[in-house]
Amino acid sequence: MRILFIKSTLNSSSARADFGIASLSAMLKKHGHTVDLFVVRSLDTIPVLEYRIALTKPDIIAFSVYASLFQGIVRISNRLKKRFPNILQVMGGVHVVLNPQDILKAPSIDAVCTGEGEYAFVEFIKRYKRKDGSHLKTDGFWTRQGRVIRKNPNIPFVRDMDALPFPDRELFLRQEMSYGGFYSNGKMYLDFLFTRGCPFPCPYCSNHALRKIYGAERYVRRMSPRHAIDWVKHDLARYACDRVCIIDDTFTLDTKWTEEFLALYKKEVPVPFTCLLRVGTFTASMVKKLKQAGCVRVTIGVESGDEQYRKDILKRPMTDRELLEAFGWVKDAGISAGAFVMIGLPGETPRMWLKTIRLLGKLKPNKIVLNIYYAYPGTVLHALADSMGFLPHGKQRADYIEGIEPYLRMPQFGWNDIRYYTDHLTDMVLLSASTAGGISGLYKKVLFFLLSIPPRSKWFPIIHAPTRIYDKASRMFHSEKDVRLRME
User: Fold this and answer.
1) Residue 487's beta-bridge partner residues?
2) Strand 188-192 relative to strand 195-196: parallel, antiparallel, unpaired?
3) CB 389 within 8 A of CB 383
4) Are 428 and 451 in contact (CB under 8 A)?
5) Residues 218, 275: one domain?
6) How far apart are CA 284 and CA 188, in angstroms?
7) CA distances from 231 to 134, 177, 244, 480 (A)
8) Cα 359 from chain centroid?
9) How many CB atoms lie within 10 A of CB 419?
10) Residue 165 covered by a domain
11) How far is CA 305 from CA 281, 355, 455, in A?
12) In a domain, 169, yes or no
């Protein structure tokens, strides 16, 4: 059968590929199906999509959806249903796994996949091909039968990651959509994901919610080190790449696995790599092994500089001292260190954000990856934001961009404050990190103080309008060396 996947980037700042679609595509092709992909980058491309559908006549249209994309995809789906009423439409992705009841908000969607789809979708298509209605009873799907929603049982997560074919990277490259990207120095990288699931209870992430649905037992699954290396070698032989980017949430989660992988990587893969780490899952000794195997950069989750909030609300009990020690290990090993941080978290205040700035000034990361918090329905932090009255009312704006624009409505930390601090992140971290003495040091401290005043303050228009602090700080204190510190 012919399956057309549709991916939207209308409400997302990311134009990178989707491992879920890529894995499904590889499995479907393995079973003899024809797979295509269309990326909706703007509303102007909808007529082109309609032309593609009329030309290729797919049997099934499949949408992959995240929370911020849901409303936009429903609008696209409704339009396509009017034009092509006989084409079955299916929706999958983390949002509908956590919120399958949202099929009620999408009248044009015929079925939603309620878990990992590699085996479930193959079975669904097999039954749909019979044209006897048996697809409506496929486990792992909620299906629409007239006005009735049939809630079929969930199926277990995929246990054996090595049994899956390598993800279909080519599907995205044909759409001129990166399965990686370029670093600031022009180096090309390819993403790899070896793990599914995460054991940590971070309330802003979907993993803790998925564990509740499917159970904690064996929720975290990984390719074997041998299979992971074979995948890397397979893709490096086919695509240009200067660097491998491992995007597992916590690369050093399993010490034995990591050491075996690093030994193979050092021996068989000539390309440097980057990875993501969590404080508490690695030691100075492990960092040295990363370096020896070819690691050139790690990015560590900091998220908030308020130690109490980080521990009590974000469930990340690492102390400031432990973060400083971990960043020290990375730098001592000669590896570039990046930091993940979030702004606009439920209950956050300007004073709390300044703690994040000051902590970053002490950590001195080579790169800061800043995300504006978005509340994912089904997560603990979404429920907290709701209980505090911070969720926006009504439908999401059609032009909203996740991770770039503020989402929560918090009187103590308004949208203008968040945008202001986001724009001034680099300057404030550099000024906070300054150890200069004398007049220069005093001037930097004054500049930091003035920059720290948020727009909501009554003093903001008096201080900032005439002095143009941002421009002066940029011209006076940014050197060639400072250019390395940028938001990603």
Assistant:
1) 368
2) unpaired
3) no
4) yes
5) yes
6) 29
7) 36, 20, 11, 38
8) 23
9) 17
10) no
11) 20, 5, 21
12) no
Q: Is 205 helix (H, G, I), strand (E, B) or coil?
A: coil
Range of the domain at 487: 424-488
- Of 151, 169, 191, which residue is a domain's last? 151
> How far apart (Å, rounded) are the C-alpha atoms in residues 29 and 102?
29
CATH classification of the domain holding 76: 3.40.50.280
Q: Which residue, chain included where needed, has tokens 């969720």?
A: 391
Strand pairing category for 88-92 and 60-64: parallel
* Two tokens, residue 268: 């068989």
Reading phi first (left if > 0) and then psi (alpha if -120 to 50, else beta), residue 75 is in alpha
CA contacts within 13 A on the Cβ side of 430: 23
Rounded to the nearest 10 degrees, the angle between the axes of helix 255-268 and helix 284-293 is 20
In the numeric block, which tokens belong to residue 308?
């109490």
In degrees to the nearest 10, what's the CA dihedral of 167, 170, 171, 172? 100
Residue whose entry in the numeric block shows the structure tokens 């032989």: 237
Task: Lay out the sheet containing 295-303: strands in order across.
Answer: 180-182, 188-192, 243-246, 273-277, 295-303, 336-343, 367-372
How many structural domains does the chain have?
3
Per-residue pLDDT of the chain (488 residues; tens, 9 = 90+): 999 999 988 877 666 668 999 999 999 999 999 999 999 988 888 999 999 999 999 999 999 998 888 999 999 999 999 999 999 999 999 999 999 999 999 999 999 999 999 999 999 999 999 999 999 999 999 999 988 999 999 988 999 999 999 999 888 877 655 555 555 556 688 899 999 999 999 999 999 888 887 776 778 999 999 999 999 999 999 988 899 999 999 999 999 999 999 999 999 999 999 999 999 999 999 999 999 999 999 999 999 999 999 999 999 999 999 999 999 999 999 999 999 999 999 999 999 999 999 999 999 999 999 999 999 999 999 999 999 999 998 777 767 778 788 999 999 999 999 999 999 999 999 999 887 788 888 888 888 888 898 888 887 777 766 555 555 555 555 544 443 444 33
Dist CA 243 CA 94 (whole Å): 28
The answer to whether position 405 is within a domain reads no
Kindly give, in sequence order, each residue whose CB lies less than 8 Å from that of residue 413, ignoring residues fewer than 6 positions away.
Answer: 344, 348, 349, 350, 353
Whole-number Å distance between alpha carbons of 217 and 337: 33
Edge-to-edge strand list for the sheet holding 34-40: 34-40, 2-8, 60-64, 88-92, 111-113, 141-145, 148-151
